[in-house]
TrEMBL record, chains A, B:
PANTHER family: PROSTAGLANDIN REDUCTASE, PROSTAGLANDIN REDUCTASE 1. This is Enoyl reductase (ER) domain-containing protein. Residues 18-332 form the Enoyl reductase (ER) domain. SUPFAM superfamilies: GroES-like (SSF50129), NAD(P)-binding Rossmann-fold domains (SSF51735). One of its GO terms (molecular function) is oxidoreductase activity, acting on the CH-CH group of donors, NAD or NADP as acceptor.
Amino acid sequence: MPVTTREVHLTARPRGEPTPQDFALVERALPELGEEQMLVRNLAVSVDPYMRGKMNGKRTYTDPYELDEPMDGGAIGVVQESRSGDFPEGTTVLHAAGWREHAVLDAARVRPVNVPESLSPTAYLGVLGMPGLTAYVGLLDKARMQRGDTVFVSGAAGAVGGIVGQLARIKGAARVVGSAGSAEKVAYLVDELGFDAAFNYKDGPVAEQLAGVAPDGVDVYFDNVGGEHLEAAIGAASDFARFALCGAVSSYNATEPQPGPRNMFLIVTKRLSLQGFIVGDSDRSSDFYREMVPLVAEGRLKFAETTVDGLDNAVEAFISMLRGGNIGKMVVRTGT
Amino acid sequence: MPVTTREVHLTARPRGEPTPQDFALVERALPELGEEQMLVRNLAVSVDPYMRGKMNGKRTYTDPYELDEPMDGGAIGVVQESRSGDFPEGTTVLHAAGWREHAVLDAARVRPVNVPESLSPTAYLGVLGMPGLTAYVGLLDKARMQRGDTVFVSGAAGAVGGIVGQLARIKGAARVVGSAGSAEKVAYLVDELGFDAAFNYKDGPVAEQLAGVAPDGVDVYFDNVGGEHLEAAIGAASDFARFALCGAVSSYNATEPQPGPRNMFLIVTKRLSLQGFIVGDSDRSSDFYREMVPLVAEGRLKFAETTVDGLDNAVEAFISMLRGGNIGKMVVRTGT
């Protein structure tokens, strides 16, 4: 058993965009295994947009990251040593202990996963993990998507958005449109993921571009971006449209309050429903796995990963992801 | 039977606050009664905030007012002549033909009302009419108020708001707070309607005043006002709070788009639900009457009316109502 491991600590609370100076890679001694504990060697660590919020010092729906402590978050690894009968050595496990190469974990905080042969374990950080469940719950439960709906998703080339669009198609949406931040991503959405249309939000006003791809209105909007996108979606919404508000990545690095939609009264006249949600509240995991594992394993629901190698590069991966440097799930590979 | 009647026409589309020059009082010949028609002598005509939207030329959830035509809207009257067996002379009726002293109406467009002895017929324009149903549907169905909730209503001294607050109390709210635009209205809310606390939004920032009266957070917000009130309510909301968005009177006379809430991301982190609604979509009338008529007739649910006499003064009444010149329902008395 190794005696030390490396972890990424938050050392300063970022103002605006995080910089490498806000973090430190720290070598730390591993504790002895207690009863019902195990040593997990991480294969990959997840970096996700929500983590930006936890870097601020304020509690929201979850506690903020502590300074000079490892940051938690999704990770997948292999049991290397075990004092739990339920987790023999070699078991692939998912856990939330985040940004480190090894972790000593209680059995109660670890979930074994049975990775289908056709898939990489990292799928459980993305399409079959928290981002996938977020897409599933937001689209089906919060936006209550119905067959025949026109569905718009922002941040559509991200870990969540690409799944939203494909799930919408599988569930019978009449039209699926998305926005993303580069021509390459737009092509990926249309050519690879089967979106009916997509646009690069940097090419012009979102409202105009959205009207172009959804001229008959939007019944469901899945919001990962906030800001101008949300205002445009309110403007484009059909009567009784339903919005699942999942994130607002456009504002995560903002240092001042961002302007809100100037067309809020349309929520009344169009009878819109806006529902904010956090995937952690959901109890739909078993439905999700039952539906999604076959779809993904058989290739009927595609996903992409942008992989960065080494915990040394986790901070760069995180900063890049907030800038939109990823297609699909951003994953940091930490071992084999 | 009179041969002419007087009507208020919209003659110009207001920009900003309406002025008397946007309207005309017009004398017009009454048509002969056809089969299943009746002549109604109006007792009172309703002026309501939503009418401002219909004065703009654009269709929203309803058609705009036509220029040089009488404006429709709620009215209560008495059948003066009838060619419908279902509506004998003397029947009190509710209809939507609005701003006029008499109207010739098809029986299909008229509803008879059985006014309890303790009430004035004008109650059917307010607490037992569209505004009352709006309060009922918004609070119970859209905001899904539960026993024990803290409920905040803006525009609380208006036709809808005062009913929202009292219904919330009757349905077991733990705390009921409201905002209004004068010290007199604030006193009315607390002393007459039994609100736990209220504030004058002109006295200081809404967010600060709301935090003062609802220090433990808001579970239900019934929005009649929009703008700064909506932002403050998002800020004060408890996790999983539910907002019924009914109106935005703060912006009805605006000539430029109004700034939206700068804290929209709290909708995600607090998992808020914002539901816009229009009372006309509701099918809850029979539940509403069954519950509300006894409450009102027995005086357990109070209501106020601000009455203006004469159709000549209807325009002034409407303009005054948009400025907050009313306590409770603004009613224009047009006959006896």
